[in-house]
Amino acid sequence: MIKKINFSVAAALIVATPMINVDAATNVNQLVINAQNASTLLKWAISVEGFADFKTRPYEEYNNTKKYIEAAEKAAASLSSSKRLSVQAALVDAKVQVKRAQAYIDAITSSEKINALTAEVKKAIASENLEDIEAIYHRATAEYRKQAKLLDRVYGQSTRDGIRNSVKPAFERLMQTIEYDVTVHMHLKKAEQLLKEKKYIEVDLELMKAKQYLKDFKDNFSFYSKLLSSYEDKLNTIPLLPLFATPENKNTITLKLSKAIDKEIAFLEPGQFIISREIIQQAKLSQDRKSITLSTTDLEADTDYTLSWKGNAVSFTTPQVADKSGIALTDVEEQYLETTDTRVYMAKFTNSDGTPYNGRVKVSLAQLNGDATTAIITSINGRVDVGSQELSHYSDQNGHVVFTVKSSENATTNVQPTIQKLDGNQTSKKAAITYFYHLQSNAGEYNMELEKEPVHKTADYIVVDGLKYKWDANDLFFIHGQLVTIEEFKAALSKGDLLTVGYSVNKEGISTWNVISNVTRYLPVTITNPIKSGFTFDGSYYEISGTAEPGNKVKVYRNGALVGTVPVNKEGKWTTGAVSLLQNVENTFVAYQYAPGQDGIDGAGSVDHATTIIKEGAFAATSITYHDEGAKGISITDTLDFHFLNSSFNHSFKKKMSGTLTINDGFGRAVEVLVDYVDNDTVKVVDFLSRDEGFDFNATVFVITSTSGVVNQDQLEFNVKASNLEGTLLRASSK
After folding, report:
1. How far is CA 504 from CA 45, 267, 447, 448, in A?
2. Cα 272 from chain centroid?
C-alpha cells in the first residue's frame, strides 16, 4: 500500500520556506538546508506517492530548488577546498531531484502532444478517408516514437507508469484499430501505381500481400468492406495475361498468370496455347487458379521458345543439359561447295573423366533426310581412303579425329556425317551439313526458271536442276533487256523468275544475265500451329495459325466446312483463334491464301494452300492383355499388351517412355507399378512403387484405375475413363 504524504505538513514546509534574496544570503549552511528542503518539496511534487497528478508542472518547486542550489554553490565558492567539497556532497540529492523534475515536466509536455495526436487520429478515422488516415498514421507514429522516449525517462516505476498510462494505452489502442487498414491501403496504392506502369508481376505481389492481410486479420480492420472493395476493383482492372513461363522438365511448362482465372472456368483446353515448334497436350489449372501447367512434346535443351495465349506471348529458355556424349565438333555451320571441293571435319573425343578418348570411332555418311548420298570419305586422320561412306578408325593420342568428305562422280548431293564413339555407350552426334553442287562446265545459251532450288544472291550464284551458275563483276546484267547494275540485278532476283543466260565458263569471259520475267512471289501460306500434321489430340478446339503474305487473307476449312476468314498481319502471321474440333475423327484443315480483291469457295482462285490434320480422340484402349511371365501373379518382367482405340490413328507408346499404373485387385486394394516401353503397344513392369496391405498379386481380376506418364508418340496421356475395358485386364499365359 502506497503511503501518501500529509498535505498539511507539506503546506507547513512551504510556508516555513521563505522566498530568498540570493544576493543577501551569507550563511552557506543555511542555504544548503534551504536547498535540501526545497528539493524535498520538489520530490513530493513529482511523485505519485506525493501530489503528482501527471498534469501540473511543478515550476515553483523546481525553480526554488534550482535557486537555492545556485545560491549555496555561489556562497561556497569563497570557502576552502574541503568545505566546498562538503557543500557539493550535501547538494547531490537536490540536484538529482532537479534532474528528475525536468524529466517529469518534459513527460507532461510529451503526454499533451500524444493526446493531441490521439485527437487528430480520431478526427481522421471519423472522416473515413483512408488517404488521410494513412497520412496521420505515419506522422503520428513517427512523432509518438519520439515523445514516448520522454515518458520513459520519468523516475520511479509507479510515477512512470502513472504518466504513461494516462496517454499511451489510449493512443496505442486507437492506432491498433487502423494499423491493418493502413497496411492494406499502402499495398493497394502501390498496386495502383504499378498497374499504371504495366508492371503486372509487381502488381500481383502487392495484391497478394493485401489479400493475405484481408484474409488472416479480417476482424482487425475498421474499414474491411471498403478495402475489400478497393482490392477487388484493382484485381478486376488487371488484364488476364501470361506473366512468365518456367520450364519444369522437358515435357512440362508452368505459366504464371497476372491474376486468378474466374471460378466459372473449370477446364482449360490445351488447344488455345501455342509453344513454338511443339505440341501442347494438356493444360492444368493450379489450385489458386493463378498458374497453368502445360504438358508438351519433348522440349530441346538450351533452346529459346515462345509461348502464346490469347494473343499475348512470353519467352522462356530451357536449361542446358550437360553434354555427356564425349564428342565435340569444331565446325557446326552448313557449307555450300562445288563438287570438286573437299570439306574438312574435325571432332574431339573424351572419356567421362575428361581425358582424351583413344578408342575406335565410326563415321557414317547420309543425306539430310537420311537417304543415301554420293559423298564419300576421302581420308581420316591422315589415312587416305578410296571412297567409303562408312568408316571406323582410332582417334589420335589427343582424342582428335580429322576426316575429309567430297562428292564422288562429280554429282550434286548433300551430306550430314554421323560421328559415333565405339565404346560401351556408343554415343553419337550429327555433324554440319554440306551441299555439293556441280558447276556448269558448258558454255552456252540457257533458259532458266528459278523455281525448285534456293537463290544464293549473297554468294553470287544460282542453282538450277542441280547445276551451279556463277556470276562476277565482269558480267552484264539486264532486266527486261535494260542494262542494270549488279546490285539492281541481285535485288530483283527472286524465286519464280525466268532468265535467259549467255553463260561463259571462264572467269575472264563475259556472261549475260537477263531477267525476262521478274516475278514477285507471295510468301507461301503455312500452318505453324499445329506444328505437325497427323498428330493425335484429345480436346474440343484448337487454335489454327500460320504465316502468309502480309496484306493477303486466309480462308480456313475444316473437313470441307469454312471455319474462318482471317487477315494476314504486317508480320506475315494469321490465326483463326479457337476452332472447334469434330470429335473422334480426323479433322483436316486446309488454309487457302487469297490476294487482295480475290476470293473464292473451296480454294477457287487462291494463290496456294496448306493442309494439316488433327486426329481428335482419346489415347485409350479397347482391351489390355496381361502376360503373367512368372505365372505367379503381377510381378517384375510381366508385360501388358494394349489394343488401342481408334486404330486408324496409329497410336503407339512413346519410345523410352516410363510411367506408372495403379492396379486394383478387385477387392479395393491397389498396387502402383512402374512400367517401361517395350514396343509400340507393349509395356513391362520394372518396379513396385507402393502396395496396399493384403493386395492379392494372383487375383483373377485386375483393374487399372489410373496412369501417370503413360503417353503416346505425341505425348498424349493414356485415358483410363475413355478406354472400353470395364476396368479389366485380360489374362494370358506367358509369352
Report:
1. 122, 68, 14, 15
2. 19
> 490 near 475, Cβ under 8 Å?
no
* 13 Rama class: left (phi>0) / alpha (psi -120 to 50) / beta: alpha
- Give the list of residues 6+ apart from residue 149 with CB closer than 8 angstroms, or none: none
For residue 410 the three cell numbers come to 562429280
CA distance 612 to 614: 7
The residue to which cell 501442347 is assigned: 280
Q: How confident is the model at residue 37 (pLDDT cuts 50, 70, 90)?
A: confident
CA angle, residues 576, 582, 584, in degrees to nearest 5: 140
**Residue 560 burial by Cβ neighbours in a 10 Å radius (0-12, 13-18, 19+):** exposed
> CA of 530: how far to CAs of 245, 534, 535, 587, 712, in Å?
20, 9, 8, 12, 17
- Is it true that the peptide bond before 530 is cis, omega within 30 degrees of 0? yes
Q: What is the largest CA-CA distance in the chain?
A: 141
- Please state, in angstroms and as integers, the Cα–Cα distance from residue 95 to each residue in 31, 67, 75, following that order: 14, 11, 17
Residue 519, amino acid = V
Query: What does the angle CA 723 – CA 727 – CA 733 come to, to the nearest 5 degrees?
Result: 105
CA distance 510 to 366: 38
Nearest to residue 346, comparing CAs of 358, 333, 360, 329?
329
Buried b (16+ CB within 10 A) or exposed e, 98-107: bebbebbbbb
In sequence order, the β-bridge partners of residue 380 are 383, 403
Residues of 582-608 as b/e, b for ≥16 C-beta within 10 angstroms?
Answer: eeeebbbbbbbbbeeeeeeeebeebbb
Rounded to an integer, what distance in angstroms lies between the CA atom of residue 49 and that of residue 5? 7
Residue type, 22: V
Q: Quick check: pTM over 0.70?
A: no
Phi, psi (rounded to 5 degrees) for 375: -70, 155
CB 434 within 8 A of CB 414: yes
Q: What are phi and psi of 598, to 5 degrees?
A: -105, 150
Residue with cell 544548503: 32
Q: Where do the DSSP E strands lie in 617-681?
A: 621-627, 639-644, 658-664, 670-679
E strand residue ranges, 190-269? 242-249, 252-257
Averaged pLDDT, 7-12? 40
Q: Which amino acid is at 596?
A: P
Starting at the edge strand that comes first in sequence, how are the strands of the sheet with 252-257 ordered? 242-249, 252-257, 291-296, 280-285
C-alpha–C-alpha distance, residues 654 and 651, integer Å: 9
- Measure CA of the first residue to CA of the last residue in the chain; give whole Å: 99
Position 163 pLDDT exceeds 80: no
Residues 6+ apart with CB under 8 A from 249: none
Q: At what angle do helices 59-76 and 81-90 cross, to 10 degrees?
A: 170
For 504-543, write each residue's pLDDT tens digit.
Answer: 998 889 999 999 987 777 889 999 999 999 999 999 999 9
Q: Quick: pLDDT tens for 48-89.
A: 677 767 677 887 777 877 888 888 888 888 888 888 888 888
Question: Rounded to whole angstroms, what are the CA distances from 304 to 281, 298, 519, 680, 733?
Answer: 20, 14, 35, 31, 50
